[in-house]
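Any chance you could type out a protein's amino acid sequence plus the matching backbone structure tokens because I've never seen that pairing?

——
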Amino acid sequence: MFFEGSEKKIELRVKQGNASLRGFSRDFWEQGLALAGADILSVLSNGECDAYVLSESSLFVWDSKVLLITCGNTNLIEAAVFLIDELNVDNIASFTYQRKSEFLSHLQATRFEDDCQLLRSRLNGTAYRVGHLDGHHHYLFCSETTEMLSRSTSLLMYHIKGDIAEYLRQPNQTKAQILALLQLPKLLPEFVFDDHLFEPCGYSINGLYGEHFLTMHITPQEHSAYVSIETNLNFEQSSFNIFSSMLKILTPCSWDIISVNQQLSADSYPLHIEVACCELALNAANSFNYKHYIQPVREELTAAVIKV
């Protein structure tokens, strides 16, 4: 079995004075998600945000901002265009679109270049590629804006291993046991969580605490295991780093840190080598930072039999 864990992501913010985005009905969000090929599985809300667990990743809606993440073979760009058109481009303060290179990119409905061409028919912006085209890389499209983008940080982990990785590939898993193994309620006691366990494997969880969010998605298949975590927690104002804990629990062979308007220290990470980095000034107000790490150990590879 193969499932494309690599994600596509949009963040859209409307200008001050617009009606709250949380006022849109569930039918509205379902209409946009259907264009991408995703469904709502559950919703968690507090006074600041509505967090939807999707059949492919997550949707977060604040009063003035939307964060939509999809994985698999979803066509996120269609949902993005739907939102831009429905909200009116003149009401949009900022828009970003990120897409990681896929494990099997030829199975995707579009290429990043196609997506950018469609976006530019609606709004002006600059597209970037970070990393080598023939290897591990990330794409970013950022609309023209001088406003400060929201602080956000992502941890992308590849080829997780250890007891929890083995458990995530076994039958008869339970959400309670996965949550206990991840230790999220202990590490983030203020958060309220909403999670979903997929068949035959795969796990998604959203968490909310005031205006803060955390979302985590696990695609555990052995030869393309992938885990993503994203949050807007301010690591610069706290000595605690949830990414360090997750790296120690899931022990990936390699990982990426991607952040907007935030710098992270790697001092508390497991033993590692930083093999690539990029600090990109999007404009005078915003920065995009990327770092790629590997464990400093030799990996023993097993040849896979290819069935044709």
User: Anything to note?
Assistant: DSSP finds seven helices and 16 strands in the chain. The chain has a mean pLDDT of 91.
